[in-house]
Amino acid sequence: MMRAVMLRASCLLLLGLLAACAGDAWQGYTPLPEAAQHPHPTTAPHTDRNGAVLTAFDPARSFFPIALGGVLNDYSQNSGRGFHDAFLADFNAVSAEPGQPLPDLLAAADISRLQLLRPQRDLQHAALLDASTAVVATLPRDPAEAADFAATVRQQPDRPVWALIPVYAKPDQRLLGGAEARVLAFAAITSGAGGILWRGEDNYVARNSGAMGISPRPQLDYGIRTGDTAPLNVTPAAVAASRRLWDAVAQLNRRISRISPALLKPDADHPYEIAVRSDRTSTAPPRLRALLKPLAEDALLLIVANPAPTVEEMRVQMAFTKVARQDDDQPVEQDAARGYFRDRIPAYGATLYRITP
């Protein structure tokens, strides 16, 4: 009898130790204060479709440009083809190559339902967005070096800052990979970007200037020469990479467009803390960057970007009742009573969470 009691007590003690260990699984994380970004605590300056600067979100007017740069109105005897391709890939704006007739550009923009970004204040047209009201800042190709872009946003509290992301290759520069393009876009967004400009389209003008961009139908040779400079020679592998990057950017455009209303609102006033595993194996410092925005009356949007080539295990502490991923149905481990949830952020990854406070 005594032996049975002792055995039962031992089992209960073991179960208690296992429970304690399970509770301790939420511990062993180091806070990362620099992760939480607050670029727009009170206002998020942005434009409407004409370029007028707005300081408060207006569902009928607020506009987050997702633009393709270097577009040609007619690059293969098919007027408006470049604009139509951009529309099908969920761009909502274009920045056209200079030198093309403005009336033709406006007509193509009208037909394709895109905004034409142009520093033009003296012309009124429904498809024309006066880009002179915004600041355009180029992101470096290394996603870990976005500090200058974030500084530009802080220095321009009253003007929208658009992130220009180079998606072209030159003899000394390769095309970005899809994951790199993704994290560059979300590094800009977490820093407070009011728009994204992808530079640039692949066409004969780009090739004749020694560059290769992205396209749904890139060619080895477009067969059109301009000037005396020999066009850039490309390989079939480069053509395939251009198409893959176009597809990756199109997917990103759709992902960003779904959350763009939230991005044009001031940051959510809801305290939270990002922490990383204390026993992480990487010797490089963690680079997670997060942004919290109001998503709906009863929900918040948390964006977490990882501009590093290593996976990061993250724990978030905040007051909430439910957490779910915004883009998929993968479960998120959470303990609402204690205000914890955690997840693994892939290398060069960005994960979006819908949070019910």
Helicity level: 25-40%
Please give the largest β-sheet: 7 strands, parallel
Give the C-alpha Rg: 24 Å
Shape: globular
The sequence of SSEs as H and E is: HEEEEHEHEEEHEHEHHEEEEEEEE
The helix count comes to: 7
Detailed description of the structure:
- The chain is α/β, with parallel strands linked by helices and 357 residues long.
- It folds into two domains: 27-39 and 266-356, Sandwich (Immunoglobulin-like), CATH 2.60.40.1180; 46-263, no CATH class.
- Helices cover 27% and strands 25% of the residues.
- The protein has seven helices and 18 strands.
- It has helices at residues 2-24, 81-88, 102-112, 147-155, 178-190, 204-208, 236-263, and strands spanning 29-31, 46-47, 53-54, 66-71, 93-96, 115-118, 128-130, 135-138, 161-166, 195-199, 272-277, 289-296, 299-306, 312-318, 322-325, 333-335, 340-345, 349-356.
- The strands form four sheets. Strands 7-6-5-4-10-9-8 form a seven-stranded parallel sheet.
- Helix 5 packs parallel to helix 7.
- Mean pLDDT is 89; it is low at 1-21.
Furnish the topology, listing elements before pairings.
Blueprint: H1 2-24, E1 29-31, E2 46-47, E3 53-54, E4 66-71, H2 81-88, E5 93-96, H3 102-112, E6 115-118, E7 128-130, E8 135-138, H4 147-155, E9 161-166, H5 178-190, E10 195-199, H6 204-208, H7 236-263, E11 272-277, E12 289-296, E13 299-306, E14 312-318, E15 322-325, E16 333-335, E17 340-345, E18 349-356
Parallel strand pairs: 4-5, 4-10, 5-6, 6-7, 8-9, 9-10
Antiparallel strand pairs: 1-11, 2-3, 11-14, 12-13, 13-18, 14-17, 15-18, 16-17
